[in-house]
Design goal:
The complex is a heterodimer of chains A (329) and B (265). By secondary structure, chain A is of the alpha/beta class. Chain A contains nine helices and 16 strands. Chain A folds into two domains: 183 residues, Rossmann fold; 119 residues, Rossmann fold (3-Layer(aba) Sandwich). Chain B is α/β, with parallel strands linked by helices and 265 residues long. Classes of the chains: A alpha/beta (329), B alpha/beta (265). Bound molecules: flavin-adenine dinucleotide and adenosine monophosphate. Flavin-adenine dinucleotide (FAD) sits at the interface of chains A and B.
Chain lengths: 329, 265
């Protein structure tokens, strides 16, 4: 009988338990009662053994560690068979992954190998009456769909920040179990030749308390300069719409939205952004949106808490100046 | 002679203004907007562009467009042919109209099997209707070939596929022997727009139409793995405060003061 919730964990680049994993463990704990069984976590990577304690502190009863230098970075052909093995041996009723680079790539492949389905990029999972229902935005965020599953295990990827982590409890004892982390070279058909990180200075977009984002209304790449200055004054980071990333005005790593990043700052300032649903998908959890747009009918104003109708060129410099003044007080 | 198969789905235009976007909750379907024609899914046209860039370098490449859907999907196949693809196949079988993502992947995989040999299957990173992003990798698993997701560039030479992938904080170069599946993202660049002459030539091209049984499949045996319980438009409730002022300067200052009041700066 399948029971319990399995969380596929992730480590950050500097070897910490990824925030998304704590969020997934929080969701798993909430669901475990209804699903039946406990919460288990799988940690695949290199040097991840030490993170088992962390996973336990955030709610895992048992942590399966696959530690191997060959697993240093995510690679589908190496990771998927290990996750598949753990699923087959533990037969969880529900498997949770983050909608991260790893989750996006791994979840559909894992589902296919287990002969089951996956609901991608969900914002909610509920369990009850022997059924798991996953809620996910679709049609670029214009609609939401709820799915139930006809097969087991049910696999769900969850959007970053959609779930609250359980409070950390270091007195929680979890059992760490080492599992076979062998990578069969024959099953690894693709080869990573090179990986290049885009270094961005200052605050990381995903962690920034304030995000100032620019869109096509900036008129050109030079429009980002004043936004960078504003972001700096606010101690925040700069985001961008896909339109400007596609135009090459700003690096892709700053794209906010459905196919970019999900951000959750306390304050989001959208400058020259129309508010297409696909952009809003990246800020759906943000409560305080400021929109600066010259078109009073722009749809961004429907979701903004503060609306300024006007030309950003005239507003941003004066705004930045005032912010600096207030901050200096 | 490289053979590339591009999977192209047709979707409601994602640029449909939010004010006209409607859902029929009883039918659990999006209501088509009169006057706004469906379009090939954005990432799929980008996939066709990726294939054409390979063909530009290796002219003896054959590009086949593969689509599962009703007769109306022919428009997206024709658009892809007009862009420069060579062949079109439409799998049109009423027994498959309600196919979920996994049945879709099985049917497409069976069709790809019938179109074999192939070097490369190109899919979109996600179809822009349900935004699921599973069919490409599922096809790869069914066919037991490698899969590289979210590509911004695909090169193909002598049986080797080299892909630039988009990561959240950078890029990655991955290699795979052919045949394999690659899913593409918008970072690949704008798809080319067909010329009138190409549109006319594509109009005359024959599109093969297959049913499940042509693929050796029994549609009754293909069971959906998920059930759509509900489809709805989420409510947004935000009280918007308009920051007024005589001059932009005044608005800007007011905004800063408001944000300070709200303890946001
Ligand atoms: C499948 C899919 C996925 C997508 N994913 C994403 C995504 O992840 N992220 C994303 O952002 N988009 C995404 N998009 C694109 C999205 O649909 C929009 O096209 C895009 O967000 C528009 O960007 P924009 O608001 O910068 O440009 P526009 O829509 O062109 O808006 C520009 C705005 O600037 C205003 N403006 C012009 N001049 C000025 C001025 N001087 N001062 C003030 N305001 C001015 C205009 O009134 C207008 O509202 C996706 C689309 C699809 C189909
Ligand atoms: N009905 C279909 N016909 C052709 N290709 C499809 C179909 N459904 C999905 N695809 C392909 O699979 C990709 C991912 O789709 P999805 O998993 O539905 O988001 C799409 O971008 C298409 O390339």
């Amino acid at each position: 009988m399948a029971e319990g919730v399995l969380v596929i964990g992730e480590a950050t680049e500097d070897g910490q338990l990824a925030p998304i994993t704590a969020e997934l463990l929080g969701a798993a704990r909430r669901l475990a009662g209804a699903v039946g069984g406990g919460v288990i976590c799988a940690l695949l990577g290199s040097g991840v053994e030490g993170l088992a304690k962390e996973a336990a502190a955030f709610g895992a009863d048992k942590v399966f560690v696959a530690d191997n230098a060959l697993l240093k970075e995510y690679q589908g052909d190496a990771y998927v068979p290990i996750a598949e093995r753990i699923c087959k041996e533990q037969s969880p009723a529900l498997v949770l992954l983050g909608q991260t680079m790893l989750g996006r790539d791994m979840a559909p492949r894992l589902a296919a190998r287990l002969g089951t389905a996956v609901a991608m990029d969900c914002i909610d999972v509920a369990a009850g009456g022997g059924k798991v229902v996953a809620t996910r935005p679709c049609y670029g965020g214009s609609a939401q769909a709820q799915y139930s599953f006809n097969t087991s295990p049910q696999i769900v990827t969850l959007r970053a920040k959609s779930q609250d982590p359980a409070p950390r409890d270091d007195s929680r004892q979890g059992e760490a179990v080492k599992v076979d982390a062998d990578v069969n070279p024959e099953s690894v058909r693709t080869r990573i030749v090179d990986r290049r990180k885009e270094k961005s200075e200052g605050v990381r977009l995903e962690d920034a308390p304030v995000v100032v984002s620019g869109g096509r209304g900036l008129g050109g790449p030079e429009g980002f300069k004043p936004l960078e200055e504003l972001a700096e004054a606010l101690g925040g980071a700069v985001g961008a719409s896909r339109a400007v990333c596609d135009l090459g005005w700003y690096p892709v790593a700053h794209q906010v939205g459905l196919t970019g990043k999900v951000v959750t700052p306390d304050l989001y300032i959208a400058v020259g952004i129309s508010g297409a649903s696909q952009h809003m998908a990246g800020i759906s959890q943000v409560k305080n949106i400021v929109a600066i747009n010259k078109d009073p009918d722009a749809s961004i104003f429907k979701v903004a808490r503060f609306a300024v109708v006007g030309d950003w060129k005239e507003i941003i410099p004066a705004f930045t100046e005032k912010v600096r003044e207030l901050k200096a007080q | 002679m490289p053979h590339i198969i591009c999977c192209v789905k047709q979707v409601p235009d994602p640029e449909t203004p939010a004010s006209q976007f409607r859902v029929d909750e009883a039918a659990k379907k999006v209501v088509p907007v009169p006057g706004i024609a469906p379009v090939p899914s954005q990432f799929d046209t980008i996939g066709v562009e990726a294939a054409l860039r390979i063909k530009d370098k290796t002219p003896d490449t054959t590009i086949t467009i593969l689509s599962l859907g009703p007769e109306s999907y022919r428009d997206s196949i024709k658009h892809s042919l007009a862009m420069g693809a060579d062949e079109g196949v439409l799998i049109n079988d009423p027994a498959l109209y309600e196919a979920d993502h996994w049945v879709t992947a099985q049917v497409l995989a069976a069709a790809i099997g019938k179109l074999a040999p192939f070097d490369l299957v190109i899919c979109g990173r996600q179809a822009v209707d349900w935004d699921m992003g599973v069919v490409g990798s599922t096809i790869a698993e069914i066919l037991n070939v490698p899969c590289i997701t979210i590509a911004k560039e695909i090169q193909y030479k002598d049986g080797q596929v080299v892909v630039e992938r988009v990561l959240l904080d950078g890029f990655e170069t991955a290699e795979s022997p052919a045949p394999c599946v690659v899913t593409v993202s918008n970072e690949l660049g704008e798809p080319r727009y067909p010329q009138l002459r190409q549109i006319m030539a594509a109009a005359r091209k024959e599109v093969k139409v297959w049913t499940a049984s042509d693929l050796g499949l029994d549609a009754a045996q293909l069971k959906n793995l998920v059930s759509l319980e509900r489809l709805y438009v989420p409510e947004v409730k935000v009280e918007t405060e308009i920051i007024d002022g005589e001059t932009p300067q005044e608005k800007a200052e007011k905004l800063a003061l408001k944000l300070r009041e709200a303890k946001l700066i």
